[in-house]
Amino acid sequence: MIEVNELTKRYRNVTAVDGLTFAVRSGQVTGFLGPNGAGKSTTLRMILGLTEPTSGTAAVGGRRFRDRPRGLRHVGALLDAGDVHGGRSARAHLWALARSNGLPRQRVDEVLREVGLAGVARRRIGGFSLGMKQRLGIATALLGDPPLLIFDEPVNGLDPEGVLWARGLFRRLAGEGRTVFVSSHLMSEMENTADHLIVIGRGKLIAAEPLTDFAARGTRQQVTVRTPDPRALTTILNAEGATVTEHHDGSCTVTGLTAARIGQLAFDHRIMLHEVTTHAASLEEAFMELTADSVEYLAGEQR
Ligand SMILES: Nc1ncnc2c1ncn2[C@@H]1O[C@H](COP(=O)(O)OP(=O)(O)OP(=O)(O)O)[C@@H](O)[C@H]1O
């Protein structure tokens, strides 16, 4: 469990994190979302004790970082996949970390297998692609088998197969009861991964809720309707306050009424319907709507 309370970080002329309060529970994947520059990395660094907050607190398991036991057995984190010694092999890099954390050497081969790098374990990290470095970063986070895992943009640079693999891994780790906190600036990456979302913009909290609630409150639902008499239906639906857009293929998109209400009105007015399809709010749309005001680089303006 991570508890962040009124967490704030100010740099000279930028408030990177602005009074954030939220909790991250164990046993589920929590997505940490926000547009570029929203303050995600700064927040994660404060949770990990790598950046000192200007004010507020970040606690894990009820204890602040300075009072917590340290090391890879307690928390595993991937912050910057490029931040590794390029001259070492993947195995040597992990051996060094295992040694300094009092972990058995065999754990290194286990995690290399887990992340799919067993075949390149002896190769210099300097020659690794970004995706391979991400996998190595994930291996590092897993090395101590910790109950808390924090990943900052972990799927950057992974190919589609790698993205699927990472999703499955995060879900499995959460299923084992761990706390899994994963940041991303793309909603699509969270859609099939996260149970819970923390959404921030310009350092401030925008939403902290289950993914399903987030999707539901974002965009209005749309209903696609097909009828041989679109004009008559449009008149009736408009009179009920709905917005109707007619398309070239004869279908109409209706917002402002449920499919059931549209069906009832059509029935009452003896208008035949060939199709009534409800489109669940797209998560991507919900995310864009909620963060629209906080996109840092919109139209070239800076905060
Ligand atoms: N050391 C620093 N000194 C000054 N400003 C900083 C520093 N670190 C971060 N910032 C600023 O704080 C804001 C938040 O940055 P942060 O990297 O936390 O955002 P982010 O959500 O992780 O973004 P991204 O998705 O682009 O990685 C940005 O405006 C950034 O320029």
UniProtKB/TrEMBL annotation:
<dbReference type="GO" id="GO:0016887">
    <property type="term" value="F:ATP hydrolysis activity"/>
</dbReference>
<dbReference type="Pfam" id="PF00005">
    <property type="entry name" value="ABC_tran"/>
</dbReference>
<dbReference type="InterPro" id="IPR003593">
    <property type="entry name" value="AAA+_ATPase"/>
</dbReference>
<dbReference type="InterPro" id="IPR027417">
    <property type="entry name" value="P-loop_NTPase"/>
</dbReference>
<keyword id="KW-0067">ATP-binding</keyword>
<comment type="similarity">
    <text>Belongs to the ABC transporter superfamily.</text>
</comment>
<dbReference type="InterPro" id="IPR003439">
    <property type="entry name" value="ABC_transporter-like_ATP-bd"/>
</dbReference>
<protein>
    <submittedName>
        <fullName>ABC transporter ATP-binding protein</fullName>
    </submittedName>
</protein>
<dbReference type="GO" id="GO:0005524">
    <property type="term" value="F:ATP binding"/>
</dbReference>
<feature type="domain" description="ABC transporter">
    <location>
        <begin position="2"/>
        <end position="227"/>
    </location>
</feature>
<keyword id="KW-0547">Nucleotide-binding</keyword>
<dbReference type="InterPro" id="IPR017871">
    <property type="entry name" value="ABC_transporter-like_CS"/>
</dbReference>
<keyword id="KW-0813">Transport</keyword>
